[in-house]
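I'll show one example:
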Amino acid sequence: MKETLSEPSGIRRLPSHVVDLIKAGEVIERPGSIVKELFENAVDAGATEVTVELLDGGRALVRIVDNGCGIRPEEISLALERHATSKLTLPEDLLEMTTFGFRGEALASIAAVGRLTLRSRVANEALAREVDAESGVLSELRSVAAPVGTSITLKDLFSSLPARRKFLKSTATEFSHVQDYLLAMALAYPRVGLRLVHNGREVFRLPAAPDLSTRFAALHKDEAAAFVPFRYERGSFRVEGLAGLPETARPLPRLFLTFVNGRLVKDKVVRGGVLAAYGGLVLKGLLPSAVVFVTMDPARVDVNAHPAKTEVRLEDPLVVEDLVTVGIQEALKKRISSSMLGARSTFETHVTPTRSGATSVSPGAAPRFAKTDEPHSAPRTASARVPFSASAFAPSLERDGGAPAPRLETDRSPAVFASRLLETEARAQPKEFTAVRGAFGTDCHYLGQYANCYLMFQSDGDLLIVDQHAFHERVLYEDLSRAATEAGTLPRQEMLSPLLVPVPRSVVGLVAEAAPAFLKLGFSVEALDSTQIAVHAYPAFLPVSRAAQVFEEVLARVVALSDLPGAEVHPLLLRASSVRGEFASLGAHERSLEAASVFHLLHSTMACHAAVRAGDPLNEELVRRLLLRSQDVDFFAHCPHGRPVYRRLKEKEVAEWFLRI
């Protein structure tokens, strides 16, 4: 039980050595904290070679030797006093910090938790100066022989604080903290040679490297090819680094490091920008690997936000997040487009049926026409060909009573090749396969459909297997995003009778407020009373049979974003609760419905529910139209939710299955 005071106690000053121990606890938590502070001091001193030596994971000994500028003899004792620093003079200097250290607490804090020896020499001195410190008491300064630079040794960490020492982890754990930090800083400062020794054994020796890519290749030889270098600048802002390809994503990423102005930090803004860049490229629950360096005006960064200096405050966090996203996305798009899709060359693909009912594709061959008894499938002459658009084939929607709805002007928008097209023409036989352009960058021979789910192609001798749902979903998503960007809203189809959607009372007001956002998505909505929403129009690309389902899915995500209290029990609120993880993965909590990441998620939802599904049979004509729609797609080889669209199997791989090689 906590004791209480029966009478007021006198207020008194704490002894200076007790204050030192308290302050040291804010900075020094483990051997890794010592290595961090001293390595940063070495970098600030201009060192190009740093050696770190440990015993027992750093508990018995931590020694760091650098070849920096050193400390002048008359300042060595002063350097061990609290709040003594060469990096900060005026209060205004805190607003534009360009060095790691600025508080003048590191050396004093380190000296308070063990037995410290400091040795340093400057270039114009023949000898180095050395001093010992223990519990705040300094020895006499003595002269010793040593090269230019600084050497700091700490023995018996927390020897005077047994309560702190018992909270240290195992030798392996403490050593891993040191090693992970040094390997991260090795990437940030490739021009600094770095050596780590543990218990007398050299763990690694990294010579100075000219740039990040060279240092990264030296550290991660087998993984370097899976990382894309990127660099993006706008004004005084710069983001650069290495981004892992989507296939490197894991539940716990192999490498995820973020730096701001050269400082290793855990910053949710930069992290959010990285995750947003991979939106639609990795599955939910997986995180990409990345090494990200953000450089910006020091006046826009507050580095005095955490005692251990592992966090910063940014003046314009949303702007920084968006710039990080743009920088990484541009590089990923270029790499994925070039490596997975080839040069996106223009080629002609002619598809003809074979005797088995499958199809063969002959690039450059004259088109042939399938025989069919249906009158509308008669071949057309070349002179009758017109440019393909979704509206050229889309039939009128059937309304209540079976009467066809009048075609709206918006139906002629080139926005989408949609599910209503597939639904209404799924039974149609192939008409004519005119020359089309494919999406995979090489000449493809269509082989047929497998399990009513996968489209099979032969491409440059390889076997190409395409997930029809993921492929169509990506096409739809790109069309939706492009239409929303160009027109500001999706084309709408008015309903003769409104669709009535029952909702909880707490949602009605939310829908009324969010009506402009729904309109941008193609839904015209109205709150009728406290429990009903009327939908007067839906996106023109949707079949009417799916309009209600898609609206409910979109509404659930709008509710999830608003984070309404869950006092009511309603299926919509339960659905909203289940999809909140999607927003968390995008860092979209507490953000406006106008945010680009939010519309990405909503467009993804609409595309997913409108796309052709696994199990839907597709004839050659529908495959042709899918290929035709894909030629203008900013194709990422993944659906918007991160699932791969296709897999390419080399002929050698197939031959190995059958023991032919």
Q: What stands out?
A: The chain is about 30% helix and 20% strand. Confidence is low (pLDDT under 50) at residues 1-12, 21-25, 87-91, 341-437. The first strand starts at residue 49 and ends at 55.
